[in-house]
Amino acid sequence: MTYYTKPMFSLSDTRIEEISDLYSNNYGYYSKESEIKPGERIRYSVDMYKRNYIKDNFYISYAEDDDETLIGFAIYIRKKYSNDHTITWVVQLVVDSDHRGNGIASRLLQSIWGFSNDFAWGLATTNPCTIKALENATFRKVSAREIKEHVSDLKQVFDDVPFANLVDLEVNENTSLINSHFYVDYSSVATPERISKLSLGDIKPGYEWFAFVFRDQALDEKLISEKFLPFINFSENNLIEAYSRMSSDQAWMHGTTNEIDEILKVYRRSEGDFLDIGCGRGRHSIELSKRGYNVHGVDFVAENINKAIESSKGMINPPRFDTVNVVSKENLSVLMDKYDSILALYDVVGSYPDNASNKEILVEAYNRLSSGGYLFLSVMNMELVDNLIASDHIGVVTEDPSLLFKLEASRIMQTTGDIFDPRYMVLDSESGLIYRKEQFVEDGDLSAEYVIRDKRYREQEIVSMLEEIGFVVEEVRRVRAGHFDISLSSDDDRGKELFVIAKRK
């Protein structure tokens, strides 16, 4: 299953027809009270899509199966209005009946409502389950009282949503309804039990609940206690996707030649077998191969490996590239028994939130090194974080999740890669982990905001771990990207990496 996000105006006529067919065959039925086609399927024509939704600021997030067949979609408007308020309103959500229960709708809605910088998120619906999904995605309870307080802001969107009319809006302390004149049969989903859990009033024929939550609204403690860890795990499970979406032209990636020069000053041999763990798109592996070495590059992101293979085409002695996760030990049989030197550069060690997994990378490196072989390692410099981060960005995140929810999200991973900007970091003082929120947009894949956790190291911490495994640490330098040859002082803010040279006895 594959997910995408695109502007509605970019869709082909064929895709719009597929959307119309999926909606018309799966959305539902008109109620018996409907003046048009009571009891018949609700349909939405191609012309209606073109007239109402092929516009600026309208987007579609959708899912395809392995045969590239459309199996679910959500259409939404995301637009910045007055007072710099970005409001997101999902106007359609449909999943093929044969694929319901597989988490498709939740994944689509999470990708849309998960953007923590927005002012408000919501929709109009007759389905209490969708309102629950909104609450779970935002950790806020839908409340008629909150909607009433913010209704003047929400009214800005009405000119853009075809079925919305201000005169049809009923919002007060206990009710939030909109008369969309949409007579849908909701009897199977809007059960009395589910309705009783809402605070939006009793629904009426032709009406939908007008359900929104807001950034400045208090977080719901019960939702946090139930959903916070699954929310973190959701991001962790999609970590590979986040790494695959990083730009391949970030400034810190431009120093490959200098970095390999410095490695070879230590290695001092004109031949040998190198293993490049976490090789990414292969820049170090390719540079070593150009200099006559045999190189095996591995990475846990298959898309990175595919790009590395493409970049090495036409070389006389190209590296070998494989998708391997050395922590999970899948496909480790493709590795050689021994290598003369191993690279684990740019936060391969530290990318896992549990230190046992990071240590396992180093254990595997030790086991694969020949006697006297070198490990060239770089990890993020925690001592620099200590110098940069403000006290109000430090705490125990699991005990006070508001630290994370109030944190501003960035698009650093997708653009510059400068993940030391203190505005976008929270330090969990109990685990020692750095938390960040990273957004990915406008690259064709599913728009999403992920919580990223990483482990950064102080010099003594990484040295102790290496020595415990059996390495002899020969040198540790504080360096900046592309300049492994220059050892910086401890108070130099450019020293974002610790470059470590270690050896197996």
Topology:
Elements: E1 2-7, H1 13-26, H2 46-52, E2 58-64, E3 70-80, E4 86-95, H3 104-113, E5 120-125, H4 128-138, H5 144-154, E6 169-171, E7 176-179, H6 192-196, E8 207-214, H7 221-237, H8 239-244, H9 256-267, E9 273-277, H10 283-290, E10 294-299, H11 302-311, E11 320-323, E12 339-344, H12 355-368, E13 369-380, H13 382-388, E14 394-395, H14 402-405, E15 426-428, E16 433-440, E17 448-455, H15 459-469, E18 471-479, E19 497-504
Helix pairs in contact: 3-4, 9-10
User: Strand content of the residues, in percent?
Assistant: 15-25%
Going by helix content, strand content and strand pairing, the class is alpha/beta
As laid out across the biggest beta sheet, the strand order is 1-2-3-4-5-8-7-6
Tally of individual helices? 15
Radius of gyration: 26 Å
The average pLDDT value, as a whole number, equals: 92
Q: Please give the alpha-carbon distance between the first and last residues.
A: 47 Å
Unreliable stretches: none
Structural overview:
This protein is an alpha/beta fold and 505 residues long. Helix content is 29%, strand content 25%. It contains 15 helices and 19 strands. Helix 3 packs across helix 4. The protein is elongated and about 85 Å long.
Explain briefly what this protein structure is.
This protein is an alpha/beta fold. It contains 15 helices and 19 strands.
Keywords:
505 residues; alpha/beta; 8-stranded mixed beta sheet; 15 helices; 19 strands
